[in-house]
Structures are given as structure tokens and as C-alpha cells.
């Protein structure tokens, strides 16, 4: 059994104050994956970040902490609330997967170099067969450690390179849905 983990698809990710991003088709691809998982009756886990900072758009009670409408969980879907990038840390996610005999996870969401990468690394380290769906993830422009500005595409591709072959297999939406 394979679970789909959708990470941080919250209203706060739509903020116009965020830096430029890549993969404008990511939400459509995530929605396609979600529809396929739901239609097949496969397990879906929706992860959301709940900030410890009262001024964050992801603070409890803020509209930004809510799921975007098209990613709102159905009654039987599992919700994970996290306070750090990694969806496995202090959430019970590992146990939830093990109790259901789930050993395979497919990860989509935001941001590629933060919560997606952190969660995929832990999933791989814990022995889950892990796939990250490259075109169902996105990230934002960011300066590297030396101060050189990097485009969201560069940041995205480097994060995927960090994961592929070591912690996860990086694939596309078409790999799962055929076309």
C-alpha cells in the first residue's frame, strides 16, 4: 500500500509577499495525484505547518494555516500538524504508517528544499520506499550560503538532486498517472 503525503498546501503559500517561485503547474499536478489516490481508495495524508510564532501566517487561528480549498482533507484522510519542516518529527506519522502496514510513500507539496526535502530524507532513513514527485512540488528564489541569488528552479533542482538515489526516487506526475 502506498500513501500520498501532501505537504503544506495551505492558504499562506498563496501570499503575494513570498519570493518568486517555480513550477506554476505544481498545484494542478498535486490535485491530479490527490484525485487518483482518492479514486483508488488509497491512503492520503495531508500535512500542514502550524508555526510556533504568533506573527506567522501559519500561526494557529490564522487563515494562512488553513488548507487551500482543493486540498481540504476528506473525513477519512489523515491530518498531520507539524511545527518543524520534517513531517515525521513529533507527529506520530511514522507510527500511523506502520500501524496500517504502509511501507511506501509518495511526497508532493511545498517547499521542495524545506519541508519536502526534510520529510523525504527522514522517510528514506526510516526505511520507507520514498518517491518525490518533482512536478508536484515547488519552491522559492533563495540566496545560497555565499550570498549568490539562486532562482527557484535552481533551488528546486538542487533539492531534488540531494534526494534522488539516496533518500528517494524522484519521478513525475505522468509516471503515476500515465501522461
From TrEMBL:
It holds the Pfam family Isochorismatase. Keywords: Hydrolase. GO terms for molecular function: hydrolase activity. Residues 2-174 form the Isochorismatase-like domain. The keyword Hydrolase applies. The keyword Repeat does not apply. This is Cysteine hydrolase.
Amino acid at each position: 500500500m502506498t500513501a500520498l503525503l501532501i505537504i503544506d498546501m495551505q492558504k499562506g503559500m498563496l501570499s503575494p509577499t513570498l519570493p518568486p517561485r517555480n513550477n506554476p503547474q505544481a498545484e494542478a499536478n498535486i490535485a491530479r495525484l490527490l484525485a487518483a489516490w482518492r479514486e483508488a481508495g488509497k491512503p492520503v495524508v495531508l500535512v500542514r505547518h502550524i508555526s510556533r510564532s504568533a506573527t506567522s501566517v501559519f500561526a494557529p487561528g490564522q487563515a494562512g494555516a488553513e488548507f487551500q480549498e482543493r486540498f481540504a482533507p476528506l473525513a477519512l484522510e489523515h491530518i498531520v500538524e507539524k511545527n518543524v519542516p520534517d513531517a515525521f518529527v513529533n507527529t506520530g506519522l511514522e507510527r500511523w504508517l506502520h500501524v496500517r502496514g504502509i511501507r511506501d510513500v509518495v511526497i508532493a507539496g511545498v517547499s521542495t528544499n524545506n519541508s519536502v526535502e526534510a520529510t523525504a530524507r527522514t522517510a528514506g532513513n526510516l526505511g520507507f520506499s520514498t518517491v518525490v514527485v518533482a512536478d508536484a512540488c515547488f519552491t522559492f528564489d533563495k540566496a545560497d550560503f555565499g550570498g549568490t541569488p539562486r532562482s527557484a528552479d535552481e533551488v528546486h533542482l538542487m533539492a531534488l538532486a540531494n534526494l534522488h538515489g539516496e533518500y528517494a526516487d524522484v519521478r513525475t506526475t505522468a509516471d503515476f498517472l500515465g501522461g
